[in-house]
Each structure stands twice: as C-alpha cells, then as structure tokens.
Amino acid sequence: MITVALMMLQLSAAPVQAAPAPEAEIAPVNRVLDAMHAAASRADGDAYFATFTADGRFIGTDATERWTLPEFRAYAMPYFSQGKGWTYRPVTRTVTIAPIACRCVAWFDEVLDNDAYGTTRGSGVLRLTEDGWKIEQYVLSFAVPNDKARAVVGVIKAD
C-alpha cells in the first residue's frame, strides 16, 4: 500500500498529461476485471480472490463494508462454497494506466448490470505485481439517478 501511495504522490507531482494507453496495455487489466466478475458469477472463490493483491480491499455498498481481503474472504467463501455467487455484467468500462515510468498502477470505473440491483458501478485500482495485474481496491456502488437522490437519501436518513 505504501508503494501505491508513493506512486500516487509521484503522479500528482508530475505535470505530464496522461495520454490514452494503447489497447494492448489496457487489455491485461480488462482481463483481470472480467476474470473477477466471471469467478464471482460461477461462485469460484479461489479464482475470485486470486484476482486481488494480498493486501487488497473490497468496499461494498453499505457504509460499514470496508473489508480487507481476509475479512471479505471470510464473508464470501461460505456463499461461494454453497454455489452462491453474484453476477455483475460490465456494460462500459474505462481504464487508465498511470502516466508514471513504471506503468504499474491502473484505475478504472465501470457501469455494471445486475439482475437484483439494476445499474451499479464498480471502481478501483489495480497494481502490476510479479504475478501480473491484481486488484488493490474494488468499490461497488449503487447508481442513483439524480432525480431520485433526495428520495433515496430520505429513506437512508429515516433508517
């Protein structure tokens, strides 16, 4: 995590404008994210958690859901072991490779479709490791249309 923080400091100090990364550079990041979603859909916990760094984090839709990888594994594996996964289908995704010398940090945001929740969002950071790209942080959120935001906030506040 310190390495990522130092890289982000380097990035913020760099006056370089990020040029779009070529598709060949982005493709491995997309494959990791697609593999993560596919593993969750088929309830394959081992494959799912293999897409994360050992110190990765999963931030869920509830304000209390900020899990370290071991915490999230403890939560999810009982579901996976029963064949219960979750299916989020990417609709669109934008990936950016950090414009720093190592080209070893990527961030993304994606619009997802889910049968239960409809349109959702995923966003996060990947780090290039000795084993390839791995998810450092994944954030799942609900996409609330602006014209419905006050009603949703009202329901949350009333809880």
TrEMBL record:
Annotated SnoaL-like domain ranges read 29-145
The positions making up the signal sequence are 1-18
In terms of Gene3D superfamilies, this protein maps to:
3.10.450.50
Q: Name one Pfam family in it.
A: SnoaL_3
Q: Does the keyword Signal apply?
A: yes
User: Where, if anywhere, are coiled coils annotated?
Assistant: none
InterPro entries membership: NTF2-like_dom_sf, SnoaL-like
Q: Which SUPFAM superfamilies match?
A: NTF2-like
Keywords annotated in UniProt: Signal
This chain belongs to the protein called Nuclear transport factor 2 family protein
What species does this protein belong to? Brevundimonas pondensis
